[in-house]
Design a protein that fits this description.
- By secondary structure, the protein is an alpha/beta fold.
- It has two domains: 124 residues, NAD(P)-binding Rossmann-like Domain (Rossmann fold), CATH 3.40.50.720; 172 residues, NAD(P)-binding Rossmann-like Domain (Rossmann fold).
- The protein contains nine helices and 13 strands.
- The longest helix is centred in the C-terminal third of the chain and has 20 residues.
- The protein starts with a strand and ends with a strand.
């Protein structure tokens, strides 16, 4: 069995994955480039996270006749799956990014509420200007998106003594209670902090629009660690002075020079770094090891988002 792995050397494979099963032969995607040989027999490819598109763009599918599965390093798959022939199955990395992304979501909320971002700027000018800030404690929280990341955010909120947590997903359910997206007009005005962790799709694009923003109470904080297009950027910019936002993702992304989001005083911002942390590396390696074991034993793979057709 031939597989390609998202590492730069054989030594890194050994460090990350340990000793692989004897039946597994591998090559590496060093510098995000395809190996110069082995394509005619490769059966499974694990892609890097942030540069998956660069690797897929190099693939001549006719030269990969035995390729049956692609393993993504991201939970999101909408940016890749349409570029892959239907004969090839696709698995995502659901669960791998939960801890890092949830940590960043909490960090962004704290930075915005406690104005850590302001103090970081003050430090550059040697300005000592403490201000009275808000707090995460006693806040009414709304989590939109109750999958892996949304659930991880909720677990981490438990230690911050928030007043309440209301959950929203694309469909409603019970135990625990989860409201449907259709209920958002009635819910957003009852929240102090809103976390967004939905995936990107046609149905979620601009789910936070001008109407929902207008229904939010003054001072509401919106934290987006899902996808940039979940929020109508123009509508958010129009709410400066009333609504705050903390964004790890933006629309457009990356932000072009001169875009108004760069200078918006009501925005706390990080450059899509939810998955850029050490926990991702170890957890993706654990998923790769698990998938290789399943390939060898002919068990169903984990995190299948599309089976070979």
């Amino acid at each position: 069995m031939m597989v390609w792995l998202p590492y730069d050397s054989v030594a890194e494979v050994t460090t990350r994955l340990g000793i692989l099963p004897e039946v597994v032969q591998f090559d590496v995607l060093a510098d995000n480039r395809l190996p110069i040989s082995g394509g005619e027999v490769v059966e499974w490819v694990a892609l890097p996270n942030y540069s998956a598109g660069k690797v897929v763009a190099q693939m001549n599918w006719d030269e990969l006749p035995q390729l049956e599965w692609l393993q993504l390093g991201s939970a999101g798959f909408e940016h890749i799956i349409d570029q892959v022939p239907s004969r090839i199955g696709v698995c995502n990395a659901a669960g791998v990014h939960d801890a890092g992304t949830a940590e960043l979501a909490i960090g962004l909320a704290l930075a915005a509420l406690r104005r850590i971002d302001r103090y970081a700027v003050d430090r550059l000018s040697e300005t000592f200007a403490p201000v009275y800030t808000d707090s995460l404690a006693d806040k009414r929280v709304l989590i939109i998106g109750c999958g892996h990341v949304g659930s991880a955010i909720e677990r981490r909120l438990m230690g911050f003594e928030v007043a309440s947590i209301t959950r929203v997903a694309r469909t409603s359910r019970t135990d625990p209670q989860v409201h449907a997206v259709a209920d958002l007009p009635d819910l957003v005005g009852q929240a102090d902090v809103i976390f967004l962790s939905l995936p990107g799709s046609d149905s979620t694009q601009k789910i936070i629009n001008a109407d929902l923003l207008s229904r939010m109470a003054d001072g509401t904080l919106v934290v987006n660690v899902g996808r940039g297009p979940l929020i109508d950027t123009d509508a958010l910019l129009a709410e400066q002075g009333r609504i705050r936002a903390a964004l790890d993702v933006t629309d457009p992304e990356p932000l072009p020079p001169g875009h108004p989001l760069w200078q918006a005083e009501h925005i706390t911002w990080t450059p899509h770094v939810g998955g850029r942390n050490r926990s991702y590396e170890t957890r993706y390696a654990a998923l790769i090891r698990a998938q290789l074991g399943r390939l060898v034993s002919r068990e169903p793979l984990l995190n299948i988002v599309r089976s070979p057709q």
